[in-house]
Design goal:
Blueprint: H1 2-32, H2 48-75, H3 85-95, H4 103-115, H5 117-125, H6 137-152, H7 158-172, H8 177-192, H9 194-212, H10 224-231, H11 260-284, H12 288-310
Helix pairs in contact: 2-3, 2-4, 2-6, 5-6, 6-7, 6-8, 7-8
Length: 311
């Protein structure tokens, strides 16, 4: 009986150990599997600011990878390679607050850019005036991100790619490095996004033509007669179609604006003055009756004066 109990206890312990090993194997296999990140995933921020922050973290991660594993790989020091891109991404997520970062796009750049490093370097080298090994590491990382987006992210306008590269350089790069980055990415956009660039050039040309159209309107042609009339220093008295005299362009006539109240007052005063003058004229002109009376009055005055003298 004791032996049976011991065998049962040993079997239970063995089964428990097997279950624990199976669970550990399942967890390890699931965590070691390839993870795919989708831009449409909604478990993290996908705004424009979140994508910009993802570019910043990707630039720092690519810089770290370029100065470690990538450099050791090119120098043949394979035994020194111990800083893979996925380890850099995991360490970055563990030591930084990534809740406002587009995690999917960050992991995509940290995975795809190291895998496509040879092709992206070939694209960049076509538009460089020096060897790519002589590039500053920060400039190299920024150009890798810009080349990757121009080639693989067609939904992002090429102007946005160039603008974001300039912002990365302003934050991490040297003072005059923007000249090289802008020139290389601009030429690369002409090769990879030719249709988009041509459409943008045509749109800018149409907008400039519309803006210049009002300033380029043709002036009305003037004949010799109209020139003679406009250059004259006098006002022609010949009436126009409106009945008003023609006004010279060089000698403008200022017409006083008559007030209605003042016009009525002046008309009233003129009529009163005319009526007063009419009454005075009537009083000054003698009538036949008045003249006869005046003659009789004068004769009577003469007679009276003679009689007074005789007395």
């Amino acid at each position: 009986m004791t032996d049976q109990l011991k065998r049962a206890i040993n079997a239970a312990k063995t089964a428990q150990t097997n279950d624990q090993q199976a669970e550990a194997t399942r967890i390890a296999s699931s965590s070691a599997g390839e993870q795919k990140f989708d831009m449409s995933e909604s478990s993290y921020k996908t705004s424009h600011t979140a994508v910009r922050k993802a570019r910043r973290f990707a630039m720092q991660g690519l810089y770290e990878w370029l100065v470690t594993d990538r450099r050791f790989d090119k120098d043949g020091k394979l035994g020194w390679k111990d800083n893979a891109p996925h380890d850099i991404a995991a360490r970055t997520r563990a030591t930084n607050a990534m809740h406002t970062v587009h995690i999917g796009y960050y992991h995509e750049m940290m995975r795809d850019i190291p895998e496509q490093i040879e092709a992206l370097d070939a694209l960049i080298s076509q538009h460089l005036d020096r060897d790519i090994d002589k590039l500053d590491t920060v400039e190299h990382a920024i150009l890798l991100i810009g080349a990757y987006e121009l080639q693989n992210r067609l939904e992002i306008p090429y102007k946005v790619v160039l603008d974001e590269a300039m912002k990365l350089n302003n934050h991490f790069g040297a003072t005059d490095a923007h000249k090289l980055i802008n020139a290389v990415l601009d030429k690369m956009a002409t090769d990879l996004r030719d249709l988009e660039v041509q459409a943008d050039i045509k749109a800018n040309r149409r907008s400039s033509q519309k803006a210049a159209a009002p300033a380029a309107q043709p002036q009305p042609q003037t004949t010799d007669e109209t020139k003679a009339v406009t250059n004259a220093d006098y006002t022609s008295e010949t009436p126009t179609t409106t009945g008003k005299p023609r006004i010279s362009a060089n000698k403008a006539i200022k017409r006083p604006r008559a007030n209605k109240a003042q016009a009525n007052i002046s008309d009233y005063r003129a009529s009163k003055k005319a009526s007063a003058q009419g009454h005075n004229e009537e009083a000054a002109t003698p009538t036949p009756e008045s003249t006869a009376a005046d003659v009789g009055l004068q004769d009577s005055n003469l007679v009276n004066s003679d009689e007074k003298s005789k007395d």
